[in-house]
Amino acid sequence: MLKSLTVLGCCLLYAMPSVALADIYQLPSESAEVEEIVLSNLEAEGAEILIAETTAQEEITIDLAPTAITQALPFAAEVNIAAQQSALEPALIHAVMVTESRLNPKAISPKGAQGLMQLMPATAQRFGVKNPYDPLQNVIAGANYLRELKDRFNGNLQLALAAYNAGPAAVLHYGSRIPPFAETQHYVPTVMRLYRKFTQTPL
Q: Which residues are designated catalytic?
């Protein structure tokens, strides 16, 4: 089997708000020659769930090197630039982006968060974003904000993710722990699972 990787397409629900609870699946490759990645919101035989309901939390140790998967995912060029500027792994930025917006650069949440990384207007303004629906501006700002949160919480990625979702004040209010909000309890392990998935290198 060739070690190259292609993305056949995404049947993702672009109208979904941030952190919607619909499952996302990785479909099995139909090619014997090329390893393919197909993300879909539709369940199919042999599909593997990438995003699903869970409240489990886990610590993960992963290889931080870029992988073929992250290079083949949508918005890879924008993510690579953001990763260089923020010193975050592309796999982590992709994981947040998929969880936040389901890869919809025009996504708007009920609370007003915008774009691929679901920036609140105040956050977008603070990071100099002129157009929150521009993928590059949005991803760079989101990555830099996540970098800021990770530094604020002494490198604790799960707390940084919780703060990205619920706000740093909420994390501090609950004693520097993941707040007991259903959305945040779902959000953190979902991003962590995707982070691990996107870090794997196909054989």
A: 100
